[in-house]
């Protein structure tokens, strides 16, 4: 009877070990689910789109509400987002990606830093206006308040900081604070004004221009010059 062939292991070679990757976790500390495949990606995108609409309609919407609205079973929803916090993190990440893309589109070659900042602020506000109700949802979901949204916007901050640094060198902006600190101050100002818009304290008409002007004044631009810059940026 023929014996099965046994292959000797070549000296110095080890069987391939599967690649291990660090486990990703959501902000609750739970392992983040990572479904694979194009169908899973489509489901995820659809769930996020539906979740955005549902949470705008009702910031207290539950995971069950979102699953029903998306037409998926709870198992599918939780496969993508194991908790409500994870779902809100996903929305925050999407908002951050859109803001970053808007800032990239706002770039113009060889533009003065003050005009470039005015243009960037208008672009950022346009995205923020679409997502501003997420701040209310994030506030309800986490004691960190809108920190999830701020974290999602971090990739956009380098562009703003670079503009502020260039403008300080050209005496266009105040240098009483480092550029990175002024960037955080601008971010807080934009979020505060978006929240004021949510609360009905800031009129919707002209809110984008008012926000851009206020932010420019925060970094040391005179109100008159800020108004002129915003008008020029808005004109294209």
Automatic annotation (TrEMBL):
Pfam families reported in the protein's UniProt record: TetR_N
PROSITE patterns, per the entry: HTH_TETR_2 (PS50977)
Domain HTH tetR-type, chain residue ranges per copy: 41-99
Q: Which domain of life is it from?
A: Bacteria
Q: Does the keyword Endoplasmic reticulum apply?
A: no
Give the annotated DNA-binding region, as residue ranges: 62-81
- Disordered, as annotated region: 1-41
Mind listing the UniProt keywords for this protein, alphabetically?
DNA-binding
State where composition is biased (Basic and acidic residues).
1-29
* Protein known as: TetR/AcrR family transcriptional regulator
Organism, scientific name: Streptomyces thermolineatus
